[in-house]
Amino acid sequence: MINRAPVALPQSFWLHLVLPRAVILLALVTISSTVRVPVGFLYVLLVADILFFIRQFLRFQANADNHLQSMGGMTLIWAGYLVTLVAGFASISLWWGAFLFSSQPETPELFTDQMDRLHAAEYELSLSDDLLSLTFNGTITFGLTKRATELIAENPQLVGVRLTSNGGHIYEARGFANLIREHGLNTMVRGDCSSACTLVFVAGAHRSMTPDARLGFHSYALEFGSTLPNLDLEKEQNKDRDFFRGQGINEAFLIQMFDEPNTELWYPSREEALKAGLLTQ
């Protein structure tokens, strides 16, 4: 066993007690609040710290004994005991905090964030390869207007929107439609564009369809239940009928567009769509 030469008590106070413990306490502050360390590894670190803390105190005590034998005073020895006591309580508190921090579950996803993520999974809204059009596929649902607003603001070069959708929430469709009309974007249907999607389509400055595309219309219905207070389906239909009228759709079509029961879809032919003014080219 190697015997260590005695160290002057002031030097031992700083080197054996204060500085090492200060470094350890700073590390404990980090792992008790910001860095999540696995609990198993924390136990290993805790045992190592306990052993090191004992070693710190024993080395200081050995130098304190030498100090007393040399007729030194008690002031610095009592200061060392006080530092040891305070550091011990601080270490216990910080180790307790580190175990609590590492044991708690990850921050749960906020309900609003979860719903936004789930709704976003129901559709795809992306830029075309030429960066001139937005391509929308899927269900018209919550968050669509917000996402479309962001993309349009980020891409002022956009000239059109390509649609493939079986519909969805009429209020989001209205928001998307108003956005398209405000920016003078063109609309094109690829595949089916039914129900609420037709409101988005008719908002286009110029409107077109691919050869195999279809527009599907039906009367309005509630998604849940048969009635809701203060909600008049006929009033809602007339509101959107006025939007179609403002986009140049003829009166004969406006009378017929909501005649189909909400359980069925009416697909006007291309000739009927041209005659009605749904298609501009």
UniProtKB/TrEMBL annotation:
UniProt key word Heme: no
UniProt keywords, alphabetically: Membrane, Transmembrane, Transmembrane helix
Transmembrane segments: 12-31, 37-54, 75-98
Superkingdom field: Bacteria
Protein name stated in the entry: Clp protease
InterPro entries named among the record's database cross-references: ClpP/crotonase-like_dom_sf
Species lineage: Bacteria, Pseudomonadati, Pseudomonadota, Alphaproteobacteria, Rhodobacterales
